[in-house]
Hints:
The protein has 230 residues and is mainly α. It is built from 13 helices and no strands. It has 2 domains: 2-68; 77-229, no CATH class. α8 (92-117) crosses α13 (202-226) and α10 (134-144) crosses α11 (148-172). It has helices spanning 2-7, 11-30, 37-51, 56-63, 70-76, 78-83, 85-90, 92-117, 121-127, 134-144, 148-172, 178-200, 202-226.
Amino acid sequence: xxxxxxxxxxxxxxxxxxxxxxxxxxxxKLKIAILNPLLVSIIVTIVVLVVADVxxxxxxxxxxxxxxxxxxxxxxxxxxLYEQWELLKxxxxxxxxxxxxxxxxxxxxxxxxxxxxxxxxxxxxxxLPKSITTAIGMGVSEELGGYVTITVAVIVVTGVIGNIIxxxxxxxxxxxxxxxxxxxxxxxxxxxxxxKAMEIGEVEGAMSSLSIAVTGILTVILASVxxxxx
Length: 230
């Protein structure tokens, strides 16, 4: 199987897509929150690579084509926002306030925890972009001198956790406003959280889509400021 990965330029893409399809089917059949398709696909892919003794670089050579779709996929999230444009105009102050609060909370939390745990500056800036979409987060991490590969992993983990526990948090704190739900998921769990927001409702999905873009822009600006705090 290792030879197949080395000889085929599409082996990585094929394994990744099959693993995700398996995760999606599993989630639909069992309907268990923790069986997030992305989480399942990551685990399945890792198991396949370990069992087949395939080097990560060999796998990534065939799977890298998937990353080309990150930016256009993020841009496509503007469609549900356009459909809820009137709602956004009537609530723009609360929306912007919520997103700003989410970004500052995320960055401050990383700062405090890194100081408490005694992490290095490089570890710290690696974690700063944890709540923004991968396409933007990779650039922020690289610009600040962080470990880009670890940043990608942290972003994925953050999104998966947000996707899994989002509705639970809403129930615990009795959050019923659709706009609030969308902003919370988008500003904390980026695209993966937005996928959950879209499952919940159209308004939640639209607000979450907006959060991804604005959170990304604000994080790019504020992360460079926060990088000097440690």
